């Protein structure tokens, strides 16, 4: 099995995108802990996560289509944030919400496959 530099580069773009989405989830959850930016340390953490999220997104979209990168970034962050919201903040969940999250996940997988 031969893997070219281009193949590795493309895979790195998806890894960067996953890292960016992880930091996106981190800053979204951190936002809740800032309590309207009234708590200093959670606000600092949120800003750091936000900067890292944008940095890794910028690395990912060097070679990925911007529409695909942005959609996967936000979609993955929506899923992760919704799941953490249930566990960390006792947000409600029901079959309708789960089905909608599954639709987002299906779209993300679809974008990955059609983007190569």
Automatic annotation (TrEMBL):
GO molecular-function terms, A-Z: transmembrane transporter activity
Predominant cellular place of this UniProt entry's protein: membrane
Keyword flag Chloroplast: no
Transmembrane segments: 14-34, 40-58, 70-89, 95-114
Subcellular location: Cell membrane
GO cellular component: plasma membrane
Annotated keywords: Cell membrane, Membrane, Transmembrane, Transmembrane helix, Transport
Membrane topology (UniProt): Multi-pass membrane protein
Record keyword Transmembrane present: yes
Top-rank taxon, per record: Archaea
Alphabetical list of InterPro entries matching this protein: EmrE-like, Small_drug/metabolite_transptr, Small_multidrug_res
Protein name: Small multidrug resistance protein
């Amino acid at each position: 099995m031969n893997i070219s530099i281009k193949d590795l580069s493309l895979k790195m773009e998806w890894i960067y995108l996953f890292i960016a989405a992880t930091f996106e989830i981190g800053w979204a959850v951190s936002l809740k802990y800032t309590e309207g930016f009234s708590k200093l340390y959670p606000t600092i953490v949120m800003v750091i996560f936000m900067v890292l999220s944008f940095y890794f997104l910028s690395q990912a979209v060097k070679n990925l289509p911007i529409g695909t990168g942005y959609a996967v970034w936000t979609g993955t962050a929506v899923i992760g944030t919704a799941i953490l919201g249930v566990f960390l903040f006792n947000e409600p969940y029901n079959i309708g919400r789960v089905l909608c999250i599954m639709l987002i996940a299906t779209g993300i997988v679809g974008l990955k496959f059609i983007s190569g």
